[in-house]
Automatic annotation (TrEMBL):
InterPro entries: MBL_Glyoxalase_II (IPR051453), Metallo-B-lactamas (IPR001279), RibonucZ/Hydroxyglut_hydro (IPR036866). One of its GO terms (molecular function) is hydrolase activity. Its cofactor is Zn(2+). Keywords: Hydrolase, Metal-binding, Zinc. This is MBL fold hydrolase. The keyword Hydrolase applies. It holds the Pfam family Lactamase_B. It comes from the Bacteria. It comes from Faecalibacterium prausnitzii. Residues 13-178 form the Metallo-beta-lactamase domain.
């Protein structure tokens, strides 16, 4: 597997990731960067985009999904709850949603999804090998906002407790939707919001 980190435009600078399999298939997690940036990597490596995986449906995470899907014939994964066709949730539909704790395989890559509502109703985290893509559920030392449409303090607290109990090695790299990277273990040990959720259990 080859992994590439791309950034969306200002002011959000959303983290986006492109993974290439040994067979030349590509997976994008949160297509927030410009279409041409993905196209260049794909064409430089002779790869074909087949899967677009969205951690949630906010516009700063899915901006290039539609164009890339049409251009490459790639399928889009996003929870139906986050496909409202609005300014905040621009996707009107997706090809697939995620089954709780189920696996999605793309050649040698296996993604495991867990639902983590709170930032949005359809938020998920995705584990692939040593990478945990958490969208806006958890940031380094913080969590995603719960005061936007579809957000919920109560559901976020429950999701953080679930998050803390996931069967994931502590050294797994935590890749959030915004800001710096961390590890799963570091967030369990130092993230105030996760620790508070566990105290309130």
């Amino acid at each position: 597997m080859q992994a590439f980190h791309l950034l969306g435009s200002a002011p959000f600078y959303t983290n986006s990731f492109l993974l290439l399999t040994k067979a030349g298939h590509a997976v994008i997690i949160d297509p927030a960067a410009g279409v041409q940036e993905y196209d260049k990597i794909l064409r430089d490596h002779g790869a074909v985009l087949t899967h677009i995986l969205c951690t949630h449906g906010h516009y700063d995470h899915v901006g290039s999904a539609g164009v890339l899907s049409r251009e490459w014939g790639a399928k889009i994964w996003c929870e139906a709850a986050d496909c409202a066709g609005t300014q905040l949730f621009p996707l009107k539909s997706a090809d697939f949603g995620y089954g709780e704790g189920t696996n999605l395989s793309v050649d040698e890559l296996t993604f495991t999804a867990w639902h983590t509502p709170g930032h949005t109703e359809g938020s998920v985290v995705l584990l692939c090998s040593e990478y945990l893509f958490v969208g806006d559920t958890v940031f380094q030392g913080s969590i995603g906002r719960t005061d936007l449409e579809g957000g919920s303090d109560r559901k976020m607290e429950a999701s953080l407790r679930k998050f803390a109990g996931l069967p994931i090695p502590k050294e797994t790299q935590l890749l959030p939707g915004h800001g710096d990277f961390s590890t799963y273990g570091e967030e369990l040990e130092t993230n105030y919001y996760i620790k508070a959720a566990l105290r309130n259990a």
